């Protein structure tokens, strides 16, 4: 009797084994060296946080685009400009994610990388107010990027920590350049709109919006 039980047990074990072997393929974990992953943790954390900053900016511009599209507001030039800015901010988030990937730093899950972003506001009383918000938003983003640079240049006192030249160069040359140009552009637009409002009152915003729509403002 004992022998019969043993045989049945062995047969059952073999069946169970072949079934699981057929249904799922369990490969051993692959050993990949980690020496190429060299970003210092404080620097990585700053970069991860910047993904969220860019998404917050994207959502704020998205809200501005939607606000100026409303039939009661109807400023298609402002709407077009802000929707384009929203796309650019989304691209910035993707660029930072790609950079983290290139440096081997996109291993942990993304739940801490992308949370629910919230726009700054959902309505703006005038185009001037939205442009002012946009310029302040960009100034805030610029200072966040400078913070990342400071941290990544001198990430910690640890022995293997080093000045992350490549990342610092990428942020200074690519991101800061775009920030400075964008800020100048918004400041110039505010200057033109301000003068038009002084001279033409409410008509100024209407005319400015048409200029924005047809790409006639520089
Ligand atoms: C910019 O940052 C300041 C200080 O953190 C904050 O009070 C302000 O709301 C931010 N402005 C924009 C437009 O994001
Ligand atoms: Fe950005």
Automatic annotation (TrEMBL):
UniProt superkingdom: Eukaryota
PROSITE patterns in the cross-refs: FERRITIN_LIKE
Record keywords, A-Z: Disulfide bond, Golgi apparatus, Iron, Iron storage, Metal-binding, Oxidoreductase, Secreted, Signal
Cited function: Stores iron in a soluble, non-toxic, readily available form. Important for iron homeostasis. Iron is taken up in the ferrous form and deposited as ferric hydroxides after oxidation.
Principal cellular location given in the protein's record: Golgi
Localization per Swiss-Prot or TrEMBL: Golgi apparatus; Secreted
Residue ranges occupied by any Ferritin-like diiron domain in the UniProt entry: 37-197
Quaternary state and interactors: Oligomer of 12 light (L) chains and 12 heavy (H) chains; L and H chains are disulfide-linked. The functional molecule forms a roughly spherical shell with a diameter of 12 nm and contains a central cavity into which the insoluble ferric iron core is deposited.
Official protein name in the record: Ferritin
Enzyme class: oxidoreductase
GO cellular component: extracellular region; Golgi apparatus
UniProt key word Repeat: no
Residues reported to bind Fe cation: 54, 89, 92, 138, 179
